[in-house]
Amino acid sequence: MEDCPLFNCGKGAVFTKDGTIELEASVMISKGQHKRGCGIVLVKKVKNPIYLAREMLIRGGTDDESGGPNGDGGGAQGHCCLGGETVEQLAGKWGCEIVPENYFWTRKRWNQHKRGLGKPAREGWEEKTAGKDVENDGGWDGHEYLAQGTVGCVALDQFGTLCVATSTGGLTNKLVGRIGDTPTIGAGFWAEEWEAATRSSLQVSRPQSQQHHCSWVAGMFPKGLREAMGSCFPKLEGYNMLRLEPCSQHCHVDSSVEEKIYERGSRAAVQAVAISGTGNGDFFLRLAAARTAAAIVRFSAADNQPRSLASAMAQIVGPSGEMQRAAGDRWGKTSEGQGGMIGIELVGGVGRVVFDFNCGGMFRGWVDESGKVRVMVFKDEF
Fold first, then answer.
1. 29-54 pLDDT, tens per residue?
2. 48-57, 194-203, 256-265, 322-331: which range is least confident on average?
3. From the candidates 16, 106, 150, 278, which is the catalytic residue?
4. 3-state SS, one letter per residue, for 105-133
5. Apex CA 319: angle with CA 326 and CA 194, to 5°?
6. What share of the chain is helix, strand, coil (3-state, %, to 5)?
């Protein structure tokens, strides 16, 4: 998707207020790597930022020459977020493809940039692209098709590892140097695993106070992002094959899957979540939205009132949720507070895809275990 000009990431990224491109991406896994999560920011020349985030994650576990834990992370040291020239130099060292900045320019995004500044749509395009190899996409008038936003993917492998990958160009006409939620751990993405309830007490339910209809969610991703996430999954043994099921808002762990619960020494059940967000990133940042949703699921069990990921998402990004309330009296007048999440929750050895959003629609798709492709835009199927 980073190679497709339809999406606000990579090739189709939006312009800053100054007419430049600054890309962001992140990758995080629930277990198996030392750093677990990495973000890259202010990238201008790396063709596929998601590959760079993956390299930073994988190389974070690099040992030193003696085999000890003091390696330099492939040059990134112990850092989980790097940007600008520093990370682009590492990208070249790590074999990521470097391209000229004009590779990312598209006329439809330039038109969008100019309109946002209250100027004629095509103003300055010919001068900016003169003598440069820029693909002529014909521009965009806002009617022929809908330009899409941030790209996020969540995946569950057969070993019980969850991975989330997200890539974006950020907000149209953002200030140069602005860093959004996509590369910020806990804001626009999160993945973790924990030892939850025992076999006898495991239950996931939706509190009666939550009144929100939820359909099923997203998880479909193209070959490029499959490859990007592939190296993040550890080759662990001792786990059974997983079933991936869609989840309604009123989902419970059925007693028939108790035998599939992963156990450790204390016979505690393994539970995990992975989340990717899209929308107004500043509000994801203010609420630490992704981590907050995950924490609701993880720590609600301590009060003997376990919550599902669907319920937690509804509380954060669903209609009348925390994101909407944070916008205050600006809700509906600007894009403030608008957003959505996709995710996968692993309970009892069963993965369930989940989503929620508070705006008009959110493009999403997934492939179930039978290979059937599902695509949705609004709350209900059509």
1. 999 888 899 999 999 999 999 999 99
2. 256-265
3. 150
4. CCHHHHHHHHHHCCCCCCCCHHHHHCCCC
5. 80
6. 25, 25, 50
- CA–CA separation, 191 and 276 (whole Å): 9
Torsion of CA 158, 192, 338, 362, to 10 degrees: 0
Buried/exposed 215-245: b ≥16 CB within 10 Å, e otherwise: bbbbbbbeebbeebbeebbeeeeeeeebebe
- Please choose, from the candidates 281, 251, 253, 245, the residue with its C-alpha nearest in 3D space to the C-alpha of residue 269: 253
- State how far the Cα of 279 lies from the Cα of 360, in Å rounded to an integer: 12
On whether the CB atoms of residues 79 and 73 are closer than 8 A, the answer is yes
- What pLDDT is attached to residue 218? 36
Window from 21-35, 230-244, 275-289 with minimum mean pLDDT: 230-244
- Per the CB < 8 A criterion, the answer to whether 304 and 311 are in contact is no
Angle at CA of residue 165, ends 335 and 249, nearest 5°: 65
Q: Is 150 a catalytic residue?
A: yes
**Which residue's structure tokens are 């790209």?**
151
**pTM of this prediction?**
0.79
